[in-house]
Structure formats: C-alpha cells, structure tokens
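Re: the 66-residue chain
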Amino acid sequence: MLPYYLVSEDNGAHRSSAHHGVGGPVKVSSVQPDVISAAFVAACVAAGQPANPDFNGDAREVNPEP
C-alpha cells in the first residue's frame, strides 16, 4: 500500500522520503500545535517520554512497552 500513498501524497513539509511523497494530488501538511498542546508535549518530554515529530516515520511508538 505504501507505494500508492507515496504517489498520491504531496507533502511539502517533509519532502520526498521513504515515508512521504511529493507531487501527488492529495495535499498534506503539518499542523502547528496550539499553546496547550505544545505545553502538554513539553511536559511529557520533561517527564522522560521521547518526542516523536513524525508518526508516519520510522517509528510510531518511540518507547513501546516490551
């Protein structure tokens, strides 16, 4: 399925990569978090949870349970 998503996606933020396509008919972009969401993520990182800037990247769970 991934090859079909890559061909159909136009993600200018990530550019073309193994997980993101550019030039397709479906426009995709990243959202800027609001103040409360950004504070929540910052608190999670401060508590030791690693940040994951791209959930469609190599790892969806950066710290999965064993």
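Residues 2-46 form a domain with the Arc Repressor Mutant fold (CATH 1.10.1220).
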